[in-house]
Predict the structure.
Amino acid sequence: MENKKNSILIVDDEPMNIVVLTHILKPDYTVHVERDGMSCMEAVYELMPDLIILDILMPTMSGFEVITALKNDAATKDIPVIFITGLNSSKDEEKGLKLGAADYISKPFSPAVVKLRVKHQLQIVNQMRIIYKISITDELTGIGNRRYFYTHLEKEWQRAMRRKDFMSFLILDIDNFKVYNDTYGHLQGDIILKEAAQVIEKSLSRVTDKAARWGGEEFAVILPHTDLDGAKYVAEKIRSAIENHTFSTDDPKSTRITVSIGINCRIPSHTSSYSLKNYVSDADKLLYRAKATGKNKICASLEE
């Protein structure tokens, strides 16, 4: 499958500059265009481009003002910006670099120079993405690791708090996994963990639903905008899918695997002392309640 092209947002109020830059870059990249600073800011949040090519001298909002706004926002601060300018002042170049510009391209444009400077910046972007992906991926199962998941969980907690919306959290534990590992060995146990991760991910139907390996034989799932009934539906879907899955181990007769699941559903609130730490801790208690009361079941209340 062909790799997705990197995206570039060109921002310039001179139509001819846009035509020239688009002609140079469009064969290799997905190019978007805006003609002023305010439109640029709106487009950045919608597109989240890999690179911004930004004119300095623009009406209403200059390139310097745009880059200042971008670098002051956590959501956009890491997007590299290349300034395009006809200014030859070293002070202007120094100012742009101090504000966070990654590079400069001078007018009139040299196609070769434009291509090389853009290619260099996007190589850095792509390398950093690979490094980041490795850092947030569980090596064994290929899904997100606990570090990735907790960062995502914190973001969803804050979003649900702002929207006053339900948010559900599942913790799953493979039943009797230690016994299985001791009986059949760690290589067979690794197969169970890998395939369980795949089954869990396939059970999630929305892009916003995320799964991760929480640790050992535990997995976690975050379900934004999901009330308790919705969370129970997803949890049962996962529980049933794992129970009915044929794991590809050396001894199929011995691989009936089940999971216990704890569910915590909440609308976070600024006015409540109930924290994200409490939220996770209560889900963990519900998981152990499920295990203590029979395993291969779902528990969403400590009274169940």
